[in-house]
Automatic annotation (TrEMBL):
It comes from Chelydra serpentina (Snapping turtle). This is Testis expressed 12. It comes from the Eukaryota. It holds the Pfam family TEX12. Residues 1-44 are annotated as: Disordered. Residues 7-20 have a biased composition (Basic and acidic residues).
Length: 122
């Protein structure tokens, strides 16, 4: 068991040494020798203030357009919701009227049945 752990430690240290050797052998470019992508001509055109302003203005217009569409949709939905509320209020009032009418009919029938029952008993 201890021989396995010793071998594993040896393998790790060998790998570290190999990686260090490879790193020292590969030529590394200094920061001055590296090509700077941000300074290339194609990317410089993206960083011009005029181009950025145009892109920002276009994005601003598009965002405002989307927001106005969203606000319009919300106002339409709010109006629709208000009409639904009014319709439900009307249905509720009608249901209450029908309920009161049915209660009156029930009382009227109850009164008639008591009159009929009293007449039959006498």
């Amino acid at each position: 068991m201890t021989s396995n752990t010793v071998k594993a430690d040896e393998n790790r240290s060998k790998r570290r040494k190999e990686m260090e050797n490879e790193a020292s052998e590969s030529p590394q470019l200094s920061s001055l020798e590296r090509p700077d992508l941000a300074l290339s001509e194609s990317s410089q055109s993206l960083y011009k203030p005029e181009a950025l302003e145009k892109v920002l203005n276009d994005m601003n217009k598009e965002i405002n357009n989307l927001l106005s569409k969203y606000a319009h949709i919300l106002s339409e939905r709010a109006a629709m919701d208000a009409s639904y509320v009014q319709e439900l209020d009307g249905i509720l009032k009608e249901a209450r009227i029908i309920e009161n009418h049915l209660k009156q009919k029930r009382e009227s029938l109850r009164h008639r049945f008591t009159v009929i029952a009293n007449t039959l008993q006498s």
